[in-house]
């Protein structure tokens, strides 16, 4: 199917059980894939273009990477297809205000990166970004959510969720705005039915159990104020959170995944090594209804020399 478009259209579609975890060593000529549905792992020769790069995201079979020269590419590690994007050196000079983190975008056929900002979104500091239904959804450190539409000549923006100036309430537990801003990492995810989720993760998970206060999930509800309502059960869905990508899966026909859970690929965990406290990065899974989290069994595949794992949806196109 990957030979050419004619062969691809002539053959029946091949359903590849996904998602996978991509594990890459810092100085390795190979990469390992771990299939979550089948619980099988296998090794690929690492493409030359993927050696020594920084991984910044994954979507629909493509990896977004940049190298030490700040050259940016989209690469399919299975087919070796590559799309070159403008270099980060084309980013315009700008001044950060109060540690703000700006977002930049490049369009197909363009030769430079452009700052994504409007009058109403200047000097915001963003924590996560997600593409859904033709728009880019971005969440700030204040838990504001903006939807940017880049289909026109100039970007347009819609306010999806306003700042949680008084904090958030997860059932009977209130989180002040200062803790939302400084203590919790924020992620966006969207289900196949279009539901928008906000996930808060305590900055460092502790071996002294934080219970459900460590990882909490909210669902966007525009009919109420505040617009985030606490989620106690995801049903047959689970959320996979990773490096600049989030995946929602149905676990009904997915024997390799646990239902009603949130998986993280890079969570800092405070633990003890040889009797001494230490922080390590781990794959963790949180049971939403039970309010408990634990390190995932996939950690047995991790080695100290590996880069952070990446959720990967295989594609031969």
UniProtKB/TrEMBL annotation:
Signal peptide: 1-17
Domain of life: Eukaryota
Coiled-coil ranges (or none): none
One family name in Pfam for this protein: Beta-prop_KIB1-4
Keywords from the named record: Signal
Domain KIB1-4 beta-propeller: 33-270
UniProt-recorded name of the protein: KIB1-4 beta-propeller domain-containing protein
Species, as recorded: Musa acuminata subsp. malaccensis (Wild banana)
